[in-house]
Every structure is written in C-alpha cells, then in structure tokens.
From TrEMBL:
GO terms for molecular function: 5'-deoxynucleotidase activity; metal ion binding. Keywords: Hydrolase, Magnesium, Metal-binding. One of its GO terms (biological process) is deoxyribonucleoside monophosphate catabolic process. The keyword Signal does not apply. This is 5'-deoxynucleotidase HDDC2. Residues 1-126 form the HD domain. The keyword Hydrolase applies.
Length: 162
C-alpha cells in the first residue's frame, strides 16, 4: 500500500489524473485485508465471496469512524473495486506493478533469475494504463539485463574453476 501511494508522486503533473485521489485509493484499496487477510486465487474462495468478505470488512472498519471519514473510505474502496475511473485503473496497475517489482527485487536478493517468473506471467497483458506499461517495459529490460549478467558471471566462474 505504501509504495503504491508513493508511486502517486511520479504521475506526471500535467496529467488529468488526480494524484491525491490515487494516493488515497492506494492506501484504502487493501484496508479490508486487515480483517479478512489477503485472499488469493490459491485460497479456493470465489471472487464473489472474496468481494463480499472484503465489503463486510470495510463496513466494519467504517463503523469505527466518524460519518465523514466513513463515507470517504467506503466511497474510495468502492471506486477501486468497481474500476470505473481512470484513477482506480491506474492504482490497480500500480498494485500489479508493485507485485512484479517486488518479485524482481526478491530475484536479485536471492541471486535467482526467473525464480518468480509466475508473477510476470500472471500480470502479462493485464496493465491498462500507458504510464504503468512504460514502467513495466523498463522493469523487464532491467530484469533481462540482470539475467544476462548473472548468466555471464556464472559462465566466467565455471570457466575459472575448471
């Protein structure tokens, strides 16, 4: 959530996108998970059931807030879930991008190119915004370069060991 909110700062200022709204959407979008946990496709829970659980959780959270805050949180949560605004779609793309960025960071940390390839495969073709598509393209280039350098260094190590 936090890194996605920070990504709002890199939205070009000349853009029609409301950067503050994106920041708020990023902070709110997974808030229900604080109650229901991170429900993934591997959990065996239908999308309808997931949505219902998360909606009930956000209502529970909103019941603890004053009326104005509650209305804003619920509105932002529903805007993100419905994906009908440019801001909601951009933040969804930030969420997907954050996932593959973290996967790449783990590959570098573990010195294990393509270890988390499944995340890249699962997000391929799902990005809706040109802005994030450019970020993804750059990340892919960096990832390919990391893989090439890793392979090259491995070959050099094997040659010097022989």
């Amino acid at each position: 959530m936090y890194r996605m909110s920070v990504m709002s700062f890199i939205i070009p200022k000349e853009s029609e996108i409301d950067r503050i709204k994106c920041m708020k959407l990023a902070l709110i979008h997974d808030l229900a998970e604080s109650i229901v946990g991170d429900i993934t496709p591997y959990c065996g829970i239908s999308k309808q059931e997931k949505r219902l659980r998360e909606h009930n959780a956000i209502l529970e959270i909103c019941s603890l807030l004053d009326k104005n805050s509650s209305e804003e949180v619920l509105t932002l949560f529903e805007e993100y879930e419905n994906q009908e605004t440019d801001e909601a779609q951009l933040v969804k793309d930030f969420d997907l991008y954050d996932m593959i960025l973290q996967a790449y960071e783990y590959e570098k940390r573990d010195q294990a190119p393509n270890k988390y390839e499944e995340f890249f495969i699962n997000t391929k073709g799902r990005f809706k915004t040109d802005f994030v598509r450019k970020l993804v393209d750059e990340l892919q280039k960096q990832r390919e370069e990391f893989h090439e350098n890793f392979t090259s260094n491995l070959k050099k190590e094997n040659q010097s060991a022989s």
